[in-house]
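Weekly sync, protein design subgroup
Attendees: M.S., D.O., the rotation student, P.L. (late)

Item 1: inverse folding check
M.S. brought a backbone from last month's batch and wanted to see whether the design step gives back something sensible before we order anything. D.O. pointed out we never logged the input encoding, so this time it goes straight into the notes. Structure tokens as presented (689 positions):
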């Protein structure tokens, strides 16, 4: 609570000379030096102290340019439905100004409030937007305090601060460095765990600065808040002085004035008040854990537990360190109960979020915290303070729920219920986890490991009634052994990428080769099989034999079917050969081959232009030659010459092909061209007659 003279408070309550109760707002924009503007949070001891130290403002917006009653200032320590330690919420101000032509978006200004002749700091804010209103002379300014400066990616800062896995810093060094990096001045103070040594616990690709600030505040049992001078302050809930139960008072004169003592602001009057029928029970136990179900570390004496979960600054801490940390948080927040309430009353600019408020109704004394507040208006300035909270926390966990990948940390999770008993141990630094789970019809044990970029390794065994399953996996690779007894009998099933067996009578090597029958039956990695003393039973006409490769000096068969490419060296003598393609030097046949030519097998049928056929055949060159393969003489054409003539004449006749890098000619396709040319010549000869 700010130290403001009582006569100023009376002016805010409406007590005193009306002239002295007049309020003024001033918005001052400075080019630089704004951080030296205020000597204190609540007053200016010298008239000439302001604003000379910060230089002359380049723009001032005073009350004459401010729409009356348009001010709305919202400050929050924690606006959640229950208290969450480490909350760092930005203050927001909205105000309508007139006759300001320049767009001031992104500019920071210092706001001061004058009550009569008393001037006090009212915050530093950066304008987020100032759109024009229906009255085009006016603009609505929306601005936020310096908490938004922490909303930046600080992954590079963290990486530089922890340049190696062995780097360590105290929590005080960490918060000082963070504030300097984000350009936010902070109030000099000592926090409960400033001396805690923090190692490198994460390896972030992105990291939000406010998440880091929340984590720091949380394990110190405080809240982050920007005060009216623009400094980061670490706020803690003031001691409430309440009793462990509402029915226990050690003496008659102790109630109601001793509750909260003299630390709470006592309201002389209020406009409206609503409140819950219960008091929140003070937190009396703190648990620090990494995830739900984790045993973690606990300190305190009761059952109303505050849970700190997933705070990356606690990763890797030993159990004793976590317990000491939990105890320090209990000392900061333990026993602070309050009545959730919402009160609308006169403006109290000296009251800060986190302060206590006391109001007396006809039936109850209401003592509560200012967890959030909204100030509205200027001359008729009103204050609405609010606090929320459940009577007990139950299983509610507070904490920073950021998705930050941890590098260090150990967890032990035990689940006991009528449906399941299980234990899980994990070590994030080693990237290992082991678990045992027992349910009514199954026992499962599993161990996992993954380091760096390697895929996960896992091994498990499941024991069920009538079945045992063992499995080892690495990513998508799985090896499984299953023994099962069912109505069909007993079955052993093995699944793996490859098998290795070692035995005297049977073996399979890792490369796929193997053998059996004392070496009389073997195979190599290519699949070649060697059999000694083999007998194939069956008749000549009915037995069949399939193989990828068959080596034989002499093979007789009524029919050979080869699926795929087949190669034969030497001569082939056959009654009929049916195939898609034959690649050879010579073919000898007692009858010329036939070509499929049924019209039903063809489409896109077009007549050959006889005149083009004559020109093409006239242009190509007929040659004689010898084949290099066997020296045999032959007659024909040169494929390159045919291709060039087709290109030059713009013809798409399918005469030239390619095989194994050499051009080929489809000589049978020359026959239709020859027929068309002869027909054209016969026709012309008839015309000449």
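Designed sequence read out in the meeting:
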């Amino acid at each position: 609570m700010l130290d403001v003279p009582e006569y100023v408070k009376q002016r805010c309550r409406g007590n005193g000379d009306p002239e002295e109760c007049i309020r003024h707002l001033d918005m001052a924009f400075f080019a630089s030096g704004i951080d030296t503007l205020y000597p204190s949070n609540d007053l200016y001891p010298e008239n000439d102290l302001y604003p000379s130290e910060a230089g002359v403002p380049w723009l001032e917006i005073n009350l004459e340019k401010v729409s009356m009653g348009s001010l709305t200032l919202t400050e929050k320590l924690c606006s959640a439905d229950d208290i969450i330690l480490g909350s760092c919420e930005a203050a927001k101000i909205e105000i309508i100004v007139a006759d300001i032509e320049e767009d001031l978006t992104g500019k920071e200004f210092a706001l001061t409030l004058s009550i009569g002749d008393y001037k006090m700091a009212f915050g530093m804010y950066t304008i987020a937007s100032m759109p024009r209103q229906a009255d085009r002379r006016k603009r609505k300014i929306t601005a936020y305090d310096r908490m938004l400066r922490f909303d930046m990616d600080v992954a590079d800062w963290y990486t530089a601060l922890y340049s190696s896995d062995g780097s360590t810093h105290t929590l005080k060094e960490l918060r000082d460095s963070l504030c300097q990096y984000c350009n936010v001045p902070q109030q000099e103070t000592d926090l409960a765990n400033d001396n805690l040594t923090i190692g490198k616990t994460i390896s972030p690709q992105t990291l939000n600065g406010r998440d880091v600030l929340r984590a720091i505040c949380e394990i110190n049992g405080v809240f982050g808040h920007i005060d009216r001078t623009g400094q980061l302050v670490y706020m803690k809930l003031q001691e409430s002085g309440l009793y462990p139960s509402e029915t226990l008072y050690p003496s008659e004169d102790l109630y109601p004035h001793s509750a909260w003592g003299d630390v709470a602001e006592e309201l002389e009057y209020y406009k409206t008040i609503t409140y819950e029928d219960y008091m929140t029970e003070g937190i009396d136990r703190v648990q620090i854990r990494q995830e739900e179900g984790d045993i973690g570390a606990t300190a305190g004496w009761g059952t109303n537990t505050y849970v700190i979960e997933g705070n990356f600054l606690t990763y890797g801490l030993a159990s004793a360190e976590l317990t000491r940390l939990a105890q320090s948080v209990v000392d900061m927040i333990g026993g602070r109960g309050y009545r959730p309430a919402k009160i609308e009353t006169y403006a109290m600019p000296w009251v800060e979020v986190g302060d206590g408020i006391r109001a007396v109704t006809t039936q109850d004394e209401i003592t509560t915290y200012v967890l959030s507040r909204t100030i509205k208006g200027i001359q008729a300035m009103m204050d609405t303070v609010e606090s929320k909270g459940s009577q007990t926390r139950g299983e509610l966990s507070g904490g920073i729920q950021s998705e930050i990948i941890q590098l260090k940390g150990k967890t032990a999770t035990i689940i006991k219920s009528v449906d399941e008993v299980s234990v899980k141990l994990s070590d994030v630094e080693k990237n290992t986890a082991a678990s045992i789970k027992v349910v009514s019809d199954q026992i499962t044990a599993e161990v996992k490991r993954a380091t760096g970029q390697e895929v996960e390794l896992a091994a498990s065994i499941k024991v069920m009634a009538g079945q045992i399953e063992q499995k080892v996996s690495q990513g998508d690779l799985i090896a499984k052994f299953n023994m099962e007894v069912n109505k069909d009998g007993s079955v052993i099933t093995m699944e793996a990428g490859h098998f290795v067996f070692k035995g005297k009578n049977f073996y399979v090597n890792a490369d796929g080769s193997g053998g059996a029958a004392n070496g009389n039956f073997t195979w190599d990695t290519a699949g070649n099989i060697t059999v000694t003393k083999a007998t194939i039973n069956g008749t000549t006409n009915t037995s069949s034999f399939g193989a990828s490769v068959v080596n034989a000096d002499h093979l007789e068969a009524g029919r050979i079917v080869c699926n795929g490419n087949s190669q034969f060296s030497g001569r082939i003598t056959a009654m009929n050969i049916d195939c898609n393609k034959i690649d050879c030097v010579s073919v000898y046949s007692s009858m010329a081959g036939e070509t499929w030519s049924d019209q039903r097998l063809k489409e896109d049928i077009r007549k050959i232009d006889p005149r083009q056929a004559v020109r093409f055949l006239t242009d190509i060159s007929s040659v004689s030659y010898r084949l290099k393969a066997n020296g045999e003489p032959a007659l024909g054409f040169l494929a390159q010459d045919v291709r060039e003539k087709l290109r030059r004449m713009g013809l798409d006749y399918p005469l030239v092909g390619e095989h194994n890098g050499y051009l080929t000619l489809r000589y049978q396709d020359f026959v239709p061209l020859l027929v068309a040319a002869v027909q054209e010549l016969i026709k012309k000869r008839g015309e000449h007659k």
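Discussion: The helical segments are 6-12, 155-161, 171-181, 209-218, 319-333, 610-619, 639-649, 670-688. The first strand starts at residue 23 and ends at 29.
Action: P.L. to compare against the previous round before Friday.
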